[in-house]
Amino acid sequence: MNRIIIVCLIVIGHVNAQKNNPLLVQTSEVHHLLVNYEADKGSLSRFYTIPASPERNQRMQTLQQDYLKKLQALAFEQMSVGGQVDYLLFQRQLNNELRLLQEEAKNLVLANNLISFASPVYALEQQRRRGKHLDAAKLAADMHAWHKAVQQASKSLPSSIEAPVAKTAETAVKGLQQALRSVFDFYNGYDPAFTWWIPQPYKNLDSSLNVYAAQIKSKTAVGIQKDDGSGIIGNPIGREELIKQLQYEMIPYTPEELVDIANKEFAWCDAEMLKASKAMGFGDDWKKALEKVKNTYVPEGYQPELILRLYNESVDFIKKRDLVTIPPIAEETWRMSMMSPRQQLVSPFFLGGELIQISYPTNTMDQEAKLMSMRGNNPHFSRSTVHHELIAGHHLQGFMNDRYKAYRNFWTPFWTEGWALYWEFILWDMGFPQSPEDKVGMLFWRMHRCARIIFSLNYHLGKWTPQQCIDFLVDRVGHERANAEGEVRRSFTGGYGPLYQLAYMTGAFQFYALKKELVDSGKMSYKQFHDAVLQENNMPVEMVRAILTKQNLKRDFTTNWRFYQP
What are the extents of the domains in the chain? Predict the structure, then answer.
């Protein structure tokens, strides 16, 4: 009996030691593979630098396959939940990378007749990596021949090229330019013969490749949208690709279901907006209430002071309710910058993180642009966005990501933007808006996030043009037209993925559903819940849920969490 007691005490001591071990806050059974993979991928990416080259494609495929084998050799069933989550997300990442590389390889084969002159250029760049001495006179003749081959290929281009093949061919041609530039920059000015023979043949070849890439793009049969008068030309990806990307992000809803959800939330916003409009004395004409709110903008030069005041109010509100841990250095180190007029064309509102970028007029903007910027960044609109960008939104997220499980490289906008918007939900519930005008400002942004789901999905489904998206934001949400144009331009040409704009509200619904499950049920306090989320780092929210609810996961896990609760 004594021996049993001793064994039990040892086990309990071991469990408590694990619980109190700070290493377990930072690691899992898959940590070493993730770190090694990122290092190996970095090394190979810096060596095989030419995009859409067969050599790079094959080497990167081999990397994914090697790590899939290493990962699958691990004992999944014996892992902690956090380790199982890392396993599943790493497996998902590797399979997705492999899928994309295999699609590129297939398109390279289909595009081979468009870039039949590429092989000797790739071989030249391979020699350059190890510094081989080149026969400059022969290379000049080769470059002249390649130049002629490109010109001939330009004349024989088909009238149309399928979009995936055209995109791959265009990328490959630009990759050839990059390969030649690396050779030229390496030898020119150093090797006298190269410097004497090569500059003009290189210039001619680079110019012909530049023209050829543009010609290939112009021959795209489907996918690239024509200018509808808005000046915004994007690339609608279609329903099939939307569903693939939603599955990858662990969102088990169809595009049509997400649009339906957004419309239901819009109806809630409409009802709340009418309440605020009536409280302001405008009855059912909420657009008049919105117009009054827009005209509360601060005088020129005073926007930074407003940001600081709103920041202090939101942080005080959060601290008084003990909603989340705010490390002192996080409070100490955030800072401001002013956004340029050029950047405001694609970002008409704040951008945030450790550095909050303030969108407000400058002296070079015309009168109409100045007023639109000031009206669109008034104090009541800004009341929603300051805490979204700073604390407890993007700045606190980034601060904690740098300090907890930083090896997790599973970034998703559903966690990043969903978390920041979730805080708008929470602060609304807790009475952060102080007046009907504040409510109008916060509801404007909530309507905007509903609209983002609707217009971005309709665009990628091929149902709406950019101009229709702009008109929707102006008519349905009440945007200033220039700000609506900037929002749509940002969405489709600003380097954001097709799911980025719908990720705000969709991710917020996920966190809100998880809050109901864990906080409203009494299982965790707000602070415990919020701290736990931030200490798991960025990942699909369904996997955050798996960790916090200690789910029994399987190797063949598939997304299944129907999180929306109207």
Answer: 2-110, 112-224, 242-548
Kindly report, residue by residue over 216-270, the tens digit of the pLDDT: 999 887 445 577 878 888 889 999 999 999 999 999 999 999 999 999 999 999 9
Position 165 scores a pLDDT of 95
| Helix (H/G/I), strand (E/B), else coil: 549 | coil
Task: Take residue 517 and report the two structure tokens written for it.
Answer: 């499950």
Per DSSP, the three-state class of 356 is: strand
What is the length of the chain? 566
Residue-wise DSSP of 98-140: HHHHHHHHHHHHHTGGGSTTHHHHHHHHHHHHTTPPP-HHHHH
Whether the model clears a pTM of 0.70, i.e. scores above it, the answer is yes
Reading the block at residue 434, the tokens are 């102080």
b/e sequence 295-313, b meaning 16+ C-beta within 10 Å = eebbeeeebeebbeebbee
State the alpha helices, DSSP H only, in 345-476: 367-376, 379-389, 394-401, 413-429, 436-460, 466-472
Tokens of 267: 């109806």
Cα–Cα dist 453/12, whole Å: 50
338 pLDDT more than 90? no
